[in-house]
Amino acid sequence: MEGEPQHYRRADHGARILVVDDEPLARRSVRAMLERGFYQVETASGGEEALALLPTYQPELVLLDIQMPGMDGLEVCRRIRDLPQGELLPIIFLTGDERPDVHAQALRAKGDDFLRKPVMSGELIVRIRSLMRLKRLQAEVQAERDNLLDLQQQREQLFQFIVHDLKNPLSAIQVGLELLDGDEEGRPGSGHHLRRLRDTAQTMGRMIEDILDIGRAEQVGLDLRRTWIPLDTWLPRLVREVESQAQSRGHVLTWACPAGLELEADPAFLRRLLLNLVDNALKYSPAGSQTRIEARAQPGGVRLEVQDQGEGIPESMREQIFGKFVRLDEDGPDTRTGSGLGLAFCQLVAEAHGGRIWVEGNAPRGSVFVLEIPKTAATA
Ligand code: ADP
């Protein structure tokens, strides 16, 4: 194998070939041809021995003599095809049998190719090479097909989630509108309905944006537009955006950020990440609880926390909930509608910034979502 110049190195160079033949002379001569063709060779003198060798040697191609005492080559081939990975293993029959129907028998036994003995070195190598290439392409096509099926399944799942999860807030909006309709005279209470309508519409909007962004990010990655964000003025503005939503649910929203703290990040994505976390904190905590956003500097970056006093997340689920479509309580009431995509989106954004996000338990109850982002523009 050493004699082959580097630039001639083929895809099948060094491939493992199993030669099965009961005649020692035939085994020796085929081995010599194959080794000159830069293959690795193992031999077996019969069917049983060949089958026993398969799991350990894991050949990438089998050369199989048809007439052998005991189990003949046709039977060996049939048995290989019945093995879990045997369907794709390339098998070439070799035979000195001159009867015309041998070829048909070999194909019926699901062999891939057929060569008559005495075998010519050039022909043997060419057949092996083209068969291996064919099998490689077949495996690639199959992998591609599996991938596509997977994608299609994910898309269908996504579609179902979209339809299901947008239905709930939409009916909440419809109910709100009906209530408002009866409130045309501006009786007290209509402001409350309006606020709820606006909050629900905002939640829907965020869900739609998350779904679209995750889809896009999986194809081409997130397109970040980083700028320096003065967190000490930016954070209170963000809190004001969700204050009425918090109040209407009976929550108290507080924040803390040291003066002058800055972070280089995409403000639109960071805003949506934090809004997702706050939305969850409000959704999964009882009325009357506190949600707090805290920013602070740490070596090399900034740490942002969203702390709540809600129901918390069991330790065993703290990694999983960042996966797509993962929800702890599938059958929650309408107000807790969700897609299970919010945290997946948050993780995408954190990682696109070269940072990370995780969740810890809060004391005495609730969760703390922690986002760490490097201060400088080191991209993921
Ligand atoms: P969803 O749209 O369902 O809220 P997320 O990806 O944002 O999707 O969250 C995934 C799941 O994690 C939620 O369904 C919920 O079960 C759980 N979760 C998220 N945030 C919190 C939180 N602050 N407190 C408790 N559970 C939470």
Task: Give an account of the 3D structure.
The structure is a single chain. This protein folds into three domains: 6-119, Response regulator (Rossmann fold, 3-Layer(aba) Sandwich); 148-221, Helix Hairpins; 222-374, Histidine kinase-like ATPase, C-terminal domain (Heat Shock Protein 90, 2-Layer Sandwich). It is 47% helix and 18% strand. It is built from nine helices and twelve strands. It has helices spanning 24-36, 47-57, 73-82, 102-108, 121-181, 190-220, 231-248, 267-283, 342-352; strands spanning 16-20, 40-44, 61-65, 91-95, 113-116, 227-230, 252-256, 262-265, 290-298, 301-307, 356-361, 367-374. The strands form three sheets. A five-stranded parallel β-sheet has the order 2-1-3-4-5, sandwiched between helices. Strands 7-9-10-12-11 form a five-stranded mixed β-sheet, with helices on one face. Strand 9 and strand 10 (301-307) form a beta hairpin. Helix 2 (47-57) runs parallel beside helix 3 (73-82), helix 6 packs across helix 9 and helix 8 packs antiparallel against helix 9. The two termini are 42 Å apart. The structure holds adenosine-5'-diphosphate (ADP). Adenosine-5'-diphosphate binds next to helix 8 and helix 9.
